[in-house]
Structure to design on (356 residues):
């Protein structure tokens, strides 16, 4: 009996010890979860910090942002070190390019982990660059349009070609983006933004070269800044940047170039080798919640593809023509596509323009 009693006491003691160890292990796992992080690679000024704070508050996952200024810069960095990032944002044509690479750059998204995909307007799903959304999910959409300070420029501006007027000397801010800028030349000549003929691309380069004396700065991160502070009289900029500039100065006019606009759709993608894939999918699903998506659209007035979020958005935002242009304007617009080997011609033309 005494031996049995001692054995029972030892067993009870061992159970307490093991329970304590288990508790410490669970605590360690919880702390590890709280210390989890997500590495996001995204355009500058494209994700409100308040949204990241809400995500961390809810899930205990800190989001670290790294930024790029062009799709081409993003591609180059993913090619050499994609596993450093858990989630990235790529425009339509760049998703197409990445999926064509011999060495995989992207990995598939488990859509079972993104049930809020149902909130996205069908017109932004199953696009030609990624049928069935296996690798990409829409984030925001928009255009590259013109914004003009009517305090400085009294004559109406209707086209890209109008920007060549000497009155714009050293007073334009334009995107630091080769497809957008060379695209201006292509559209002025009546060609497609996706032209692949080297002769026509070089013609476009020559047209853009005429514009160089008027360009004060190339800026894809915050082109609105020079327009708001008066250093620039007009500019080619992303639609939300133009909208935000107009909020600051009502005398800034939004212009849809008569030659046709460059339209785009930005998408979440998960790089190959991402160390926190499930967290990335959790973040995408979080962003697609109507309340969160509406919150983003309030600060970043791009075209929001989330239909459920529209129900929560201010009427003034939904009526903002920068974000939601008239149908006839959109009909004249054009999305970029992968131009294959002609990319080298664009690269060379862009390099020559930037050196002048």
């Amino acid at each position: 009996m005494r031996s049995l009693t001692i054995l029972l006491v030892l067993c009870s003691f061992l159970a307490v010890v093991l329970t304590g160890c288990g508790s410490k292990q669970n605590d360690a796992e919880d702390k590890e979860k709280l210390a989890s992080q997500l590495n996001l690679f995204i355009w500058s000024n494209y994700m409100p910090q308040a949204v990241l704070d809400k995500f961390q508050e809810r899930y205990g996952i800190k989001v670290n942002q790294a930024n790029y200024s062009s799709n081409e810069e993003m591609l180059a960095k993913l090619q050499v070190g994609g596993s450093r990032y858990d989630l990235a944002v790529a425009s339509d044509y760049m998703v197409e390019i990445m999926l064509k690479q011999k060495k995989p750059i992207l990995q598939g998204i488990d859509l079972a982990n993104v049930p809020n995909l149902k909130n996205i307007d069908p017109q932004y799903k199953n696009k030609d660059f990624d049928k069935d959304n296996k690798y990409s999910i829409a984030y925001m959409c928009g255009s590259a349009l013109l914004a003009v300070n009517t305090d400085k420029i009294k004559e109406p501006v209707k086209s890209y070609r109008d920007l060549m007027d000497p009155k714009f000397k050293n007073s334009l801010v334009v995107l630091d983006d080769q497809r957008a800028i060379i695209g201006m030349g292509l559209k002025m000549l009546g060609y497609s933004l996706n032209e692949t003929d080297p002769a026509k691309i070089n013609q476009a380069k020559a047209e853009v070269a005429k514009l160089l004396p008027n360009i004060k700065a190339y800026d894809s991160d915050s082109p609105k800044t020079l327009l708001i502070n008066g250093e620039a009289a007009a500019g080619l900029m992303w639609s939300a940047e133009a909208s935000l500039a107009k909020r600051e100065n009502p005398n800034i006019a939004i212009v849809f170039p008569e030659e046709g606009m460059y339209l785009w759709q930005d998408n979440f993608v998960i790089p190959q080798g991402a160390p926190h894939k499930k967290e990335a999918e959790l973040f995408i699903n979080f962003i697609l919640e109507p309340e969160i998506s509406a919150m983003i659209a309030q600060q970043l007035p791009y075209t929001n593809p989330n239909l459920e979020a529209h129900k929560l958005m201010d009427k003034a935002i939904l009526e903002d023509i920068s974000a939601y242009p008239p149908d006839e304007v959109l009909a004249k617009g054009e999305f970029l596509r992968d131009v294959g080997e002609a990319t080298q011609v664009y690269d060379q033309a862009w390099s020559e323009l930037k050196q002048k």
